Amino acid sequence: EFLEIPALDSKTVLLSVFIPLLKPTKNGYTENSNTKVIFQTYRASPRPLGNALAYLNAAFLAEISIGDKGVGINSIRLAFGSFGVKHAIRASTVEKYLVGKTLSVDLIYEAVKLTRVAISPENGTSHPAYRSSLAVSFLFDFLWPLVEPDGCVYTSTCNSSGIRSRMTFDDSETTTLLSSATQVIESSREHYPVGEPIVKSGSAIQASGEAVFVDDIPSPLNCLHGAFIYSTKPLAR
C-alpha cells in the first residue's frame, strides 16, 4: 500500500519504517508442530555480485503444513520488483490461487502460468520476455523442492503415505534438479610452461598504485579537448 501512494513531496518526511520480524522458535518460526514458515529472496542482474540494475527481484514467504495428502499452503506472499513497472507488486492472483491447496505438479504448473500473466513489464522495458520467464523460474524454484512427482517433500525418508516424517528445509538436505559431475584435468610437463598460471605483468604496479593512467596525468598548458557531438538527423554532414 505504501508503494502505491503518490511520490512524497519536498515537505513530507518519512519518520520511520517498521518491518515485522519472524522470531525463531523450537519448531522453526511457528508454534504449530505441523507447520513451517519458509522465506526466500531472488535477484537476477547482468552482474549478480556487482552494483547493476536487476532484471527482476523477488521475495517469497509461505506457511506450509503437512497433511495426509501432502504439503498444503496455509498462506503465501509473492513480491516482485524491478521488472519494468513503477514499484514492486504482490502477485495477489497467484497467492489467492495457491492458498488452501495441496502442492502438486499440476498446481505448480497452473501457478507459473498465472505468474507469467501477473508479471508483465510495461511497454518499452528491455527484455520483457526474459523478465517474465525469470518470475516463473523463481516461483518454480521456490515451490518445487516441497513436492516430488510422487507427492513427497524433499527431506528424510517417506513413510507409507508418501509424506516425509520430518520437515526441515536446510540447504544441505534439498535435492536439486540437476545431477552432479566431476571433471579432473591432469597436468602434464610435456608442453611446459603451457598450462601453468602466469602472473599478469602489470599487476604489481596496479595493486601498489604506481601505475599511471590517463586520468592521473595533469593536463598540460593550452591543452586541447575533443568531444562527440550527436547529430539530430541520420546520415547528416
TrEMBL record:
<protein>
    <recommendedName>
        <fullName>CO dehydrogenase flavoprotein C-terminal domain-containing protein</fullName>
    </recommendedName>
</protein>
<keyword id="KW-0500">Molybdenum</keyword>
<dbReference type="GO" id="GO:0005506">
    <property type="term" value="F:iron ion binding"/>
</dbReference>
<dbReference type="InterPro" id="IPR005107">
    <property type="entry name" value="CO_DH_flav_C"/>
</dbReference>
<dbReference type="GO" id="GO:0016491">
    <property type="term" value="F:oxidoreductase activity"/>
</dbReference>
<dbReference type="Pfam" id="PF03450">
    <property type="entry name" value="CO_deh_flav_C"/>
</dbReference>
<feature type="domain" description="CO dehydrogenase flavoprotein C-terminal">
    <location>
        <begin position="40"/>
        <end position="146"/>
    </location>
</feature>
<dbReference type="InterPro" id="IPR036856">
    <property type="entry name" value="Ald_Oxase/Xan_DH_a/b_sf"/>
</dbReference>
<dbReference type="InterPro" id="IPR016208">
    <property type="entry name" value="Ald_Oxase/xanthine_DH-like"/>
</dbReference>
<dbReference type="InterPro" id="IPR036683">
    <property type="entry name" value="CO_DH_flav_C_dom_sf"/>
</dbReference>
<keyword id="KW-0560">Oxidoreductase</keyword>
